[in-house]
Amino acid sequence: MTRPDVISTADSPRSSALGRFAAPLLLVALMWAVQLVDAVLPGSFTGFGLRSWDLSGLGGIVVGPLLHADWAHLIGNTVPLLVLGCLVAVEGARRFWTVTAFAAVIGGLGTWLVNAPGALTVGASGLVFGYFGYTVMRVFAPGRVAHRVLYAIVALIVIGLYGGSMLAGVVGVREGISWQAHLFGAIGGGLAAFVGRGSTTTRGS
């Protein structure tokens, strides 16, 4: 009896890597597209951001990270978002979007509650802090020892590169910068490190 052909559905390492890193690239591209449209059309999209203590402004939890006050604001967020976002995306696109959702929702709700009533918050820095928080807390999440050691090394490098600016983004920030979005975004990302992880089991084939 002839053995049927076996069709492999596994992605090649190259296509898998492209699929993972496409997620943060897509997010940044969307932010740039929104900023470009905002610059061309009359008015400003920033009014759709997160407005604290205003129930009608809760939609800013989703929209706010895509909006920026100006090009300098967007450019300042782009590089750290790509660097830290790609570190998260190494674990897959699903993990990246999960961390993004946690950082956006927890960061947004915390900002909405703690910020001054009526304060308008826009920008992706909450996501940047979320990816930072995830990268650091991932060391303490369940997983294989070898993986945790690797994440510890990555976390030390990330802390060395961004730790100072992250701390400055929460403590002693200048007026007009939302330390609330930074703090709660980092908390959201840190919590996401423990979501969907159980004890590691080994199965024979």
Brief account:
The chain is mainly α and 205 residues long. The chain is built from 7 helices and 2 strands.
Structure overview:
The chain is mostly helical. The protein has helices at residues 13-40, 60-63, 71-89, 93-114, 125-137, 145-168, 179-192, and strands at residues 50-51, 120-121. It has a two-stranded antiparallel sheet. The longest helix is centred in the first third of the chain and has 28 residues, at 13-40. Residues 1-12 and 199-205 have low confidence and may be disordered.
Secondary structure topology:
Blueprint (H helix, E strand, L loop, with lengths): L12 H28 L9 E2 L8 H4 L7 H19 L3 H22 L5 E2 L3 H13 L7 H24 L10 H14 L13
Antiparallel strand pairs: 1-2
Helix pairs in contact: 1-3, 3-4, 3-5, 4-5, 4-7, 5-6, 5-7
